[in-house]
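Supplementary Data S3. Sequence and structure tokens for construct A.
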Amino acid sequence: MITSILTLLRPHHYIKNSFIFLPLFFGLKVFELHLIYQLLLSFIGFSSIASAVYIFNDTLDIKLDQNHPIKKYRPLASGSVPLKLAFFLATLLLLFGFSIAIFQQIAFIFLFYVLLNIVYSLKLKHIPIIDVFIIAIGFVIRLFIGATVTSVELSIWIVIMTFLLALFLAFSKRKCDLVSLKGTSNARPVLVSYNHEFLSTCMAIMASVVIVSYIMYTTSSSVLASTNSDYVYFTSIFVLFGILRYLSITYFEKTTDNPTKILLHDIWLQLSIIGWLISFAVMLY
């Protein structure tokens, strides 16, 4: 039962909530321990809210998941976690998450995220393109949580790149969904409006725009001034490698894993992120 409950909460997705820490990194405040503590609270609170949202989404998708070759093993679809227990857990998680949000005066951001995902789960996830846009907005919301808690002013470039990168990952998730449904007729409604060619094209476009945007960011006057370095653009090597590596995995390995699991299982992607963090930290600090 405990394993099933943990699966229901999807803790491996918490890695996406690390975007909350980015404003602290780019705001040159990573050595301010009280801000790190506040962000850790935000991370815990938002992760609780995110798990509650996952539970709500799974309750709506029980019948669809039961007919899915992979998702039929999810706790609610398989019946390993009773619905009443799932609702109880979701309520506790919401209360816990919002108690932290109220304490940190960011409850309105948390509320916006919850309402957005309720609408997404009920309707918007069935509308092609809109569905991936909503996912991308969720990543931007994480940025604003971190910026609000740390009182860091977000660069427009950071917001744009986060949104575009999230779009890239969301389109790749749809592509993986199509791969997992190969040879079956149990497709989710929105997948009927997608095909591999369209999603591959979207991924290629997003990858190109992200890379160009990042290079423009690293050569912008504000970054050159804040880092006192003319060589920040060297960090784009890791960004370029990471995106190409991810494209290679989704195009040639035909994986059915979502972006989070791909990142957790691929050492080269992990090394590219570590390399980027270290190189950028050297430039900033």
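Construct B, processed identically:
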Amino acid sequence: MMESEWRLDRWLAKAGIGSRKDVKKLLKKKRVKQNGQVVTDASAKVHIEQDTITLDGNPITANTGPIYLLMNKQKNRVSATTDAENVTVLADVEEQLRADLFPVGRLDKDTEGLLLLTSDGDFAHRLTSPKYEIEKEYEVTLDERPADEELQALEKGIQLKDGTVTKPAKLQPDDESDKPIVTITLTEGKYHQVKRMFGALGRRVTELKRIRIGSLLLDEDLKPGEYRELTSDELENLFRSIH
């Protein structure tokens, strides 16, 4: 279940009244009431199971179903709900949302970029299931530019040091960058897979950033650690790929 207590501005935004900026304008104009009393404080708490919120006298109902967030994960965060030794990605999420959220799959502690957070277990399971072969694309910075034959070996599938053989991958070197950058697209998600694949060639990954999951692109307007809700189109496209 969702957290029963919400900030008023976020709850109104969830109800489709407008952005949180729009909501604050409505509050300033004294158009919103909570249990019959005018409320102007955006941070006021709403208890969704007992409070009645109205806009211009009309009752408002928010969709408090599953949550789907797109995060630009920052480094030095682990993709977990709890961790005894490290800060988790949930530390960057508003407190009232944390109880039911969990990351979809994992990004390493020192990896940044696109991470989905949700309260929908079936959605997370399907999106990470090998059955659906959802593509994940990464921008990889290496210690040295790989040779063409090395990239071709990764494209065909390569045997890792533990004997595991990877599925074919798509690779594209960034010939315009001064740095040795390659984008790699995978349909599987083995432990430390990108690092292990390049490590099997004797190359070291110095920076790793996920930029795409299926049809969903990293929102470059989000600073590391920031997040937003998925749009209806983004969510619809993802659901279409796992059904």
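The mean pLDDT is 91. The chain has six helices and 15 strands.
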